[in-house]
Design brief:
The complex is a heterodimer of chains A (246) and B (326). Chain A has 246 residues and is α/β, with parallel strands linked by helices. Helices cover 27% and strands 33% of the residues of chain A. Chain A has helices spanning 37-53, 68-77, 92-106, 125-133, 187-193, 234-241, and strands spanning 2-6, 9-11, 19-20, 25-26, 33-35, 56-63, 81-86, 110-114, 137-148, 151-158, 161-168, 171-175, 198-201, 210-216, 225-226. Chain A has a nine-stranded mixed β-sheet with strand order 11-10-9-12-8-1-6-7-13, with helices on both faces. A two-stranded antiparallel ribbon of chain A has the order 2-5. Chain A has a two-stranded antiparallel ribbon with strand order 3-4. The radius of gyration of chain A is 21 Å and the shape is globular. Chain B is an alpha/beta fold and 326 residues long. Chain B has two domains: 2-185, Rossmann fold; 203-323, TPP-binding domain (Rossmann fold, 3-Layer(aba) Sandwich), CATH 3.40.50. Chain B is built from eight helices and 17 strands. Chain B has helices at 16-32, 46-50, 73-86, 98-110, 223-232, 240-244, 275-281, 310-323, and strands at residues 2-7, 9-10, 13-14, 36-41, 59-63, 89-95, 114-119, 131-136, 141-147, 152-156, 172-175, 189-194, 208-212, 235-238, 265-269, 286-291, 304-307. In chain B, the strands form four sheets. Chain B has a seven-stranded parallel β-sheet with strand order 7-10-6-1-4-5-11, with helices on both faces. The longest helix of chain B has 17 residues, at 16-32. The chains are: A alpha/beta (246), B alpha/beta (326). Chains A and B meet through helix 3, helix 4, strand 9, strand 10 and strand 11 of A and helix 3, helix 4, strand 7, strand 8 and strand 9 of B. Chain A: It holds the Pfam family ETF. Chain A: This is Electron transfer flavoprotein subunit beta. Chain A: Residues 23-210 form the Electron transfer flavoprotein alpha/beta-subunit N-terminal domain. Chain A: GO terms for molecular function: electron transfer activity.
Chain lengths: 246, 326
Amino acid sequence: MKILVCISNVPDTTSKINFTGDNKEFDKNGVQFVINPWDEYALTRAIELKEAKGGSVTVLNVGEADAEPNIRKALAIGADDAIRVNAHPKDAFFVAQQIAAIAKENNYDMILMGKESIDYNGFQVHNMVGEMLGIPSVTPAFKLDMVDDSTARLEREIEGGKEVVEVKLPFVASAQQPMSEPRIPNMRGIMTARTKPLAVKEPVGAEVKAEYVGYSKPEKKGGVKMIDPENAGELITLLRNEAKVL
Amino acid sequence: MSVLVFVEGLNGEIKKSSLEAASYGSQVAQQLGTTATAVAIGEVHEDALAKLGEQGISKVLYDADDRLKQFVADAYVKVIAKAAQQESAKVLVFSNSNIGAAVGSKLAVRLNGSLATNVTTLPKTEGGSFVVTRGVFSGKAFADVALTSDVKIIAVKKNSFEVSSNGGANATVEKLSADLADADFAAAPKETVMQDTDGGVLLPEAEIVVSGGRGLKGPENWHLVEDLAKALGAATACSKPVSDLDWRPHHEHVGQTGITVSPNLYIAIGISGAIQHLAGVNSSKVIVVINKDPEAPFFKAADYGIVGDAFDVVPKLIEAARALDK
């Protein structure tokens, strides 16, 4: 089974988010980058399936050279090889086009990724890739198993419940917890990752459809009003009469 | 040209998040000097559809194909694409739900359109541009995005837009048939299991959320969260450690790697307020924090705070909430 796992390189969840250049650009200064946590669920599940059924796991990143440490980390966790499409990921449509182009060349049995990236929160790329390739996209899935060699069974979240879906290979799925337990690379993994193949490809020409023109941050709160714990019921009165939310 | 809004039904009624999308869509239509049409799929009562007039919708296209009762992306896309073509729609509006964002993404490819999800503002349309603001960095920031294609697709973030009810007469309801084939249902779900909310409120749609953290010491104490939620008509939620410990199901986990909520009122009990948790809740309109540690970082993000033991404080809140006249 050939599995493609798409990862993005994102600011660590503890990062403080700032902007530079008249609020037109994200300030990378002092920010630690990690594999998008949602993508890690997809990556680990792909490796588990490979360990159980055989096959290969390729990781794909659409990004610039500074993403390579995290691509190597994915190889250290257990992916076999990697592809980096050398381009700034301008918008979801652009990224989806790169993934679809790589997928068309390689006939993967499944294409997995996180349900969204924690920086741009699009929840778009997986469905776009499915549509571009004309194959089903099952999102957001929290369980993925093989029924037989050609059929997968997934459970996906819907508002207020879940759906069980069976699809024939090939398909696209996006992952969320608890699909798998993300792994930490061990020393052997880190050593072997250095020599695993990492191919760099140029992007296919694609127009940008959503252009990011500026950023802002949420307004700061006015300060907290403390209530005496002995008189806690007072809170409910304030919520009704002052905040007017009850 | 017109604005087309996709509305989702639940138990025959239209979801609140879809009423928000309809209100949004009709305001965009006003801005652009056109009308707003809605498209509905599956099981929705016809009088509920006609009542979309209150949100400013003039016409509703309705595909009542029985097979559409459950969500099948390819079939839904076909129906909405047909409605878009029939109406020459240039702006398509969805709720930013798992269904709305999925269908919107596929339509962006099929209609060669520009897509923005998680949108929090009406478009700015001066000088022929079309710029919307969307939530990014998991609630830590907003981005202004210019949608440059001829067709614009917007998924509106839940609870960030008021449901308007100043519209006019009932909308006219027309049947729509997209001639669906069996192949459109190839990825249909085999089974749908709805959560038993015990008459309670679903978290993604909730206007009030009561959330518990490790400070509650164990799942056996969750009646405190549940009773307060019930008294306030709220949904229940939890922090990441609580779902990691399996005290509560994963779909209740609010935060950067869980779900993001933006209710009118968020009450956090025994949650210290790690930056990842704040990211999931900081667009809530009013935040209440109850924690016995006065140094808990969550107090900095709160509107109201109580320093005290949840086991003393919460029963008092439940009592006061039950005494409110509804």
